[in-house]
Design a protein that fits this description.
Layout lengths: L1 H19 L5 E9 L10 E4 L5 E3 L5 E7 L2 E8 L6 E8 L4 E3 L2 E3 L32 H6 L5 H6 L4 E3 L5 E3 L12
Parallel strand pairs: 1-7, 1-8
Antiparallel strand pairs: 1-4, 2-3, 2-5, 5-6, 9-10
Length: 180
């Protein structure tokens, strides 16, 4: 009798991990193709509505959505210049693969009105020989600064080395005259 208990105990120990680690989710997979040519669509988006789950099709048009909780779902496939396609009542079961293939129809894209933007000043001002940056009193009041050095350090192109010397736009503090 003791030997039989040992066999049942060993069987239970071997069976328990498989029960504990049994799958709790399923997966949805399939292929997305062009309805007219049959060519696979690369980069099409597939979304499981009502969840954060989804995937994009690979170079062969295949997609796989893993870790889908069991239930009934609606899938939407979409891609630029194709009509979206929805498939409803897709049943996902634990440890099962559900296959859903999509054939998307091409769609003409309507081009909107063309907007022309015109610059108000030239990119290069030929009459300027230097650059200038100014900071007003209102701006200084909102800055996290205590002195003039702090204000200068916050300006673009200004670096202070470990000796406290300023380097403005790559130059040394002794090379050029600066007006503060």
């Amino acid at each position: 009798w003791h030997n039989l208990k040992g066999i049942y105990g060993a069987y239970l120990i071997l069976l328990l991990p498989s029960i504990l680690f049994a799958g709790q989710t399923g997966k949805i997979m399939g292929i997305i193709t062009d309805a007219t040519s049959g060519e696979p669509l690369i980069g099409a988006n597939i979304v499981v509505e009502g969840t954060t789950l989804g995937a994009a099709s690979d170079v062969d048009g295949d997609y796989i959505i893993l870790n889908v909780p069991p239930g009934i779902y609606t899938l939407t496939a979409s891609m630029l210049s194709y009509q979206d396609m929805r498939v409803t009542k897709i049943r996902v079961s634990i440890d099962q693969s559900t296959r859903v293939d999509f054939k998307l129809n091409p769609m003409a894209i309507e081009l909107g009105e063309v907007v022309t933007v015109e610059a108000e000043r030239p990119l290069i001002q030929k009459d300027l020989t230097s650059t200038e940056s100014s900071v007003g009193a209102d701006e200084i009041q909102t800055m996290p600064v205590e002195n003039l050095q702090d204000i200068l350090e916050l300006q673009a192109g200004v670096i202070v080395d470990n000796r406290g010397e300023f380097h403005i736009r790559g130059g040394r503090s002794s090379e050029i005259a600066y007006f503060v």
